[in-house]
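Listing 4. Sequential folding, example run.
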Amino acid sequence: MKTKMNEQYHCSGSSNEYNVEQETLNYRVENRFINSNKDRNLIKTFALWKSLLIIMFLCVPNSVNGTYVQRNMNPSGLVDFACKNRKAIKNQIKIRESDIFLRIIHTNDIHSRLDPFEKNEQGESCKLSDVADRSTCFGGLARIKYVIDELKNEVDGIGNNFKSLVLDAGDQIQGGYYYSFYKGKATGDIIKSMGFEAMTLGNHEFDQGPTSLTKYLKDIGLPVISADIIVNKTAETELNEIVDSYKIFEEMNLGVIGLTTNNTAWTSSSGPNIEFLDYVDTVNKYVKILNDKGIQRIILLTHIGYEFDKKLASMINPGVSVIVGGHSHSFLYSGDDQKVIGGNKIQGSYPTIIDNNSWTTCIVQAKCWGEYVGHLDIVLDSTGKVVNKYTSGSPIRITSETKENKLIKKKVDIYQNHLYNYINEKLGDSILNIPLVDDMVRLPDTNGTTNIEIKESPMGNMVTRALMVAAKNSNNNQIIDFSLISSGSIKIGLKKGPIIRKNIMEATPFNDAISYATINGTVLVDALNGVLSGYRGNNTVREFVFMDGVRFNWTESIKEYIDESGNSKLKTTRVVDRVYIRKRSTISNGIKGISNYDAYKIGSKVDIREWEIVGPGKNYTFATSDYISNGGENIFLKTEIINLERQYNKKNVEIRDLVDPPTNPRVNTYQIVESYIKSESPIYPISEGRSQPGPLFKN
């Protein structure tokens, strides 16, 4: 699965992408954080007292620290406030004039889920997927906006030291039909109306590169903070001007520092002009800067993951009161209400409490896709310390019965209506299933684990063949030797029967722009060895590759090694044996002459006379995605690309252009695959033995 988007596709208890052992650590690894689950045992103790106090008071404790308000989810899924008016809240919260009461309202990892989504692995739009039972649908930005406004209105206006703050912890974009079609245009158009007062950058904000990110951030106009990235001022001038390290809220004497995961450098398309810094050093630096400015109350807004948030809180110098996180899609909750839990795995308390040298830091996160809106009520004294007895909060689940903000709903409907008819248009037919791997159209749900299939893919074969045909059709004067995509670029195969555009969007959801890149033969062999081993030097490679025009096999051996605990383990080692490339004479004569049906009939009986061993010193040009040509997954290192030519198509005018007119649009994956299906329909599966441990050619 394509790492740059794994988390957007899996919003179970844990992120499919996020793995502490695999993340690149730029900071010191220690394990000094205190088990935050210690507060869970106190909940039952307070439960009886809570029941009694409800009779006596308007507002009663509902957390381990004993706060002022009872907040539940009623049967309709709406927010139910026991304290209906501001005066009641103020009467229950007795704080000094120098303290502030702060309600932090937060989201993270929305991943372009504009409207309610279906609760499954893909999490696609219920409307666009024609889901009949809308009670199984959650989230939606119109509902989220309604809840945000309700939470703000409950606090704002009470007094000078009663405040609210609305934050987003990154990965607003990438995922689902809306992003596949509109890219960031639709998401940004709505996000800018949600009331966020600051956001940090997630790794997926970089997926279309710094130029697209700059346009997105200019369009939404939100304060953007990320202290651990250094943007080259000369190469990315506008982006450098947009992204700050922190934002100060003067009226609260409060600063918010942003952090972005350092694995963005290899899981996304940040490019050569973005540098990522050490987390701990960065936080300590900017806490001091804020303190020197007289700012004592400090919040971190991070997109580094829950486990790293906990470690970070235990390792930095005292001074950070709250960490509002994202990236790991973690569901944090301290209650037992099944309507709130909804079958999700609880990964920690809300808030998670970290004690570091007598300093308390509260950590919160709100899962992903907008299934929850988090809200943390906290009192901070003049030094930024948490006044523990007033701390409470909970994720609020956004259900099918949550009210909607009418303005946001109207905006979403415009994009939804444009998209609905377009994605349901028929493109062709498939005579048989086109499996992803083996005979499976869809891999089984691995519940958040990464499962790399190192084997040929009939669906991958079809997509890469489409790239070769498109290159021949559009550029007869240039030889494209082969095509290549990462295994994560394809999510599912196709079922036999009618093929509609929606099926292609589900199967190849990233819709990457296409480039032609040139490398030499040695680099190709090195890249394939990296794909098989999982490493290129010190860089992790977490994807297999699908190709047309290249055939390669490998040898396998089992070796013993000693793990970190000193235990003996066995590991399968794969090393490239032979790499063949289709002769240019064959390509020149017309790869299009080999129809999809011809390839299906030929199967693995490929004529070796049409192929030759890759020449180490010879240069080869191939069609691939921008993501791969920019160094995505470390399959190719950026320094290995000899020449790069991006493909444009000025005739590419689609329904999206009614909303976002193009100036010089790129050729993308959808166009190429759609064109291939239309011209070759009915489609058959192609299984040629392009990559395998055994012989590449049969007599």
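-- end of first protein; second protein begins --
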Amino acid sequence: MKLSIVILILASFNAAAGEAEVCKGNKGARSFLSEWWEGGRISNILTTIQGAEILRERGRIAYQADLNGDGNQDYIFESFDSQGSAKDRTFGIFIQCRGFLQFLGGDYFAGVEEIGSKNNGYNDVIFLSYQRDKSDEVINAEGQALTRSHVWSFNPGSGKYEGGMD
């Protein structure tokens, strides 16, 4: 009985250490979100400071939830500045780390559907991509673009969210 309690305690320290490692990650880049009122509507701005360089992206918060169970709201940010010719946009997964946001992965997608079950202490993220024909055109049915789901999971080895694109 005592051995199982010790194992549980060590496992909880290990999980907490994994979360802390993500926040220790890239100390050179600091990101944060802010709102900007322009033309009668609010835009979200993702600002990333890396050394002397400041990058800003207009977009929206596509999803907001506690992805890693630390009690802080984390974000999936959809950038309007990165739209490709196929209407996909970049979606980035950001975890809160002591007042800043840490980028944990992302790619071009059509949207984000939902947050899935917990895997390695982090919620899976379900992204959508457009279904395409042999000419790489988006397939439509009844006036709607068809999409497929892609599950992205946190990989503790890389410290990033990873998933496949069919």
